[in-house]
TrEMBL record:
Keyword annotations from UniProtKB, A to Z: DNA-binding, Transcription, Transcription regulation
Keyword match Transcription regulation: yes
InterPro entries in the record: AraC_XylS_family_regulators, DUF6597, HTH_AraC
PANTHER family linked to this entry: BLL1074 PROTEIN (PTHR46796:SF15), HTH-TYPE TRANSCRIPTIONAL ACTIVATOR RHAS-RELATED (PTHR46796)
HTH araC/xylS-type domain segment(s): 132-229
Gene3D superfamilies referenced in this protein's UniProt entry, alphabetically: Homeodomain-like
Name of the protein in question: AraC-like DNA-binding protein
Keyword Lipid metabolism belongs to the record: no
GO molecular function: DNA-binding transcription factor activity; sequence-specific DNA binding
Lineage: Bacteria, Bacillati, Actinomycetota, Actinomycetes, Kitasatosporales
Length: 230
């Protein structure tokens, strides 16, 4: 069972998930432009940005997490996003071991591990200060379908500067971020029952075949299979 709620940290989501039931199968995690702070019942981990589907491995577990707004996690966690691209890393590999042990003990003892993770995130955000406003502006414009060059011009950034800063904040360049945000728009429309052809146009694809190709590239399966044929 998966559940989520809006976090007290601006733009973040707090979530929890129980182990897959008997006879069930783990679902792939799709690229979403975000990074997560995770608790698997024993360890604190960081889920880096994904460029393709991620299928959880190992035994079934209860998970809790904080999913950060796109681009904001690196400043809070102290690691550039591109160093965690398509990775799940133990927090102890990124922060001092003694500090991580203390946080693990606190999270393990908490009645609500997800809230304990949220408290960790809030403490880090307080220490880091407000995120650079360009991050939210870039994500907002790309999510509105603006071309990368147009978004860069509005931010007053050259193409190389935007690409370099995007690697640190998102793990990949702005064009990949735009593709992932477009996929999120398309899935939201399709899950709401919008026909695939209309979904493609409204989400910013050239046509339905273009949508189908991008879904396969980023999600690894056809759109109908991804949505269970609705």
């Amino acid at each position: 069972m998966y559940a989520e709620r809006t976090s007290r940290l601006a733009g973040a989501v707090v979530w929890s998930k129980g182990p897959v039931g008997e006879g069930g199968a783990a679902r792939a995690v799709l690229p979403d432009g975000c990074m997560d702070l995770l608790w698997d019942g024993e360890r604190l981990l960081v889920a880096g940005p994904d460029t393709g589907p991620y299928l959880p491995e190992g035994p079934a577990r209860r998970w809790a997490g904080v999913r950060f707004r796109p681009g904001t996690a690196p400043a809070l966690l102290g690691v550039p996003a591109h160093e965690l691209l398509d990775r799940r890393a133990e927090l102890a590999d990124l922060w001092p071991a003694a500090r991580v042990r203390e946080l693990c003990d606190r999270t393990a003892a908490a009645d609500d591990p997800a809230r304990a993770l949220e408290d960790i995130a809030l403490d880090r955000a307080l220490a880091a200060g407000p995120p650079d406003p360009w991050l939210h502006r870039l994500v907002r414009r790309l999510d509105q379908g603006a071309p990368v060059a147009e978004a860069a011009a509005e931010l007053g950034l050259g193409a190389r500067t935007l690409h370099r800063r995007s690697l640190g904040a998102f793990g990949y360049g702005p064009k990949t971020l735009a593709r992932i945000l477009r996929l999120r728009r398309a899935l939201a429309l399709a899950r709401a029952g919008v026909p695939y052809a209309q979904t493609a146009i409204r989400a910013g694809y050239a046509d339905q075949p273009h949508l189908a190709r991008e879904v396969r590239r980023l999600a690894g399966v056809p759109l109908g299979e991804l949505l269970g044929d609705r």
